[in-house]
Amino acid sequence: MPVIDPNEVVGVRRALGRQLARYRQAAGLNQHQLAPHTHYGRSTVANVEIGRQNVPRGFWERADAVLGAGGKLLQSYDQLQTLVARQRWEVLAALSSLSSYLVSAQLTETGKRLTPFVDSHIVASCLEKLREVARAREPFHQWLATEEPTS
Description:
Blueprint: H1 6-26, H2 31-38, H3 42-49, H4 57-67, H5 72-109, H6 120-135, H7 140-144
Helix pairs in contact: 1-5, 2-3, 4-5, 5-6
C-alpha cells in the first residue's frame, strides 16, 4: 500500500468542500441559510467549503439531508475519514519503528545487546513521518485516538 501524501488529504478535503458548495448552490441556499440546518455558523460553512475546517459527521448528515444529496456528501466524508485514518496509522507505525530503532541503538551503545542491521531508508522513512506529524494542524493526541482503519 503506497504511503499517503499529506497533500492528498488536503486535496480530498477541499474537493469535499467544493462538493458541499455545489449542492448548496443547487438547492438555492446561501451559506447563511444553510448554517442553521447544520447547527453551525455561516463562517463554519464557509471554512468547510474551502477545506479549511474539519467538522464531525453530524454536520455532513444534516447537510446531506437538507441539500438532498442522497448520501453522496456522507459517502465523500467517509472516504476522507478513511484516508485520514490510514495516514494516521502510517505515522504511528513510523513512530513505532523509529522508537524500536532508537531503543535498539541505545542498548547497543551500552553494550547490553547487539543491534540487528537497520537500513538507512527505514530511518529516513520514519523521520519523514515525524516531519508530517510536525506539519499536521491537529493536536497529536487526536492522532493517537484514531482507531485502526479497515481495508
